[in-house]
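hey
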């Protein structure tokens, strides 16, 4: 029987964790995933576009999950859109800026989830 690589096992676990998590926790996990993908994009010139595309797909999902009923949700939607555009350009500085914005949102969501 072939052995799965550590990466394949981690990817399987992450997918299972996301599919069984409550909605708020799923949003936090998706933010964590964007951080991982952006770090991967910054460290791999060959697969940069693939990692950026995956991050953009997550951003689209996060945008569609938002209930835009107040100014905060609308602002987060616009921040996701801003990050999407940054990743479309794909420069190193744009990736860093998107990672900072998404990291700040993710940290705020994680803090809110703990309370």
């Amino acid at each position: 029987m072939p052995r799965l690589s550590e990466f394949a096992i981690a990817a399987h676990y992450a997918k299972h964790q996301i599919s069984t998590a409550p909605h708020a926790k799923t949003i936090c996990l998706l933010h964590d995933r964007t951080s991982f993908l952006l770090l991967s994009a910054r460290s791999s010139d060959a697969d940069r576009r693939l990692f950026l595309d995956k991050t953009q797909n997550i951003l689209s999902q996060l945008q569609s999950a938002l209930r835009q009923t107040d100014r905060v949700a609308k602002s987060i939607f616009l921040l996701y859109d801003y990050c999407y555009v940054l990743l479309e350009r794909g420069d190193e500085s744009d990736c860093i800026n998107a990672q900072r914005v998404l990291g700040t949102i993710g940290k705020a969501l994680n803090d809110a989830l703990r309370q």
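The CA atoms of residues 24 and 113 lie 7 Å apart. The chain has a mean pLDDT of 85.
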